[in-house]
Amino acid sequence: MKTKRLILRPLEDRDAPRIAELAGDWAVASMTARIPYPYDESLSHQWISGLEDGEFVRGIEFEGGLVGAVGYFPDDDGVTEIGYWIGKPWWGRGFATEAAAKLVSYCFTTAGKQRLVCCHFVDNPGSQRVIEKLGFKPTGPCKAYCEARQVEIATVRYELRRPLMARFWRPAL
Length: 173
Description:
Elements: E1 6-10, H1 16-23, H2 26-29, H3 41-49, E2 56-62, E3 65-74, E4 80-86, H4 95-109, E5 115-121, H5 125-133, E6 137-146, E7 151-161
Parallel strand pairs: 4-5
Antiparallel strand pairs: 1-2, 2-3, 3-4, 5-7, 6-7
């Protein structure tokens, strides 16, 4: 999948060192639910090789280098949850919004998803902005466990339903 500036591609085992470097940064790991801290190359290899049925993950590539990841997985309610992370050196460049917008479009037009959800920790205003730009609407507060922090964190949950004319869906950038 391609966007104006990015390539979203399947992860490969050779990506493990770069993923460990970027996702292993406390500033990144502490804002995700599933990335432990510390996060090393062996954990990165385990993650790449251990993606479960129904999980769809793509590496985000910019100018030939991996800068983050984006993907979705079915949650316990049978709803599709999306997630993303960007390495700290690339924060503030719109990569999360661009990659997640492409993922949402893929979910609605190719994967046939009807309803997407996503969350952000209340202390992550950057992710909140991305989610709102994508057109997600808040459904309320909740809590989510943060693997890096080893604690439950106050979280806001959002939802986006497939539009009737999904092929015309566009983020509210």
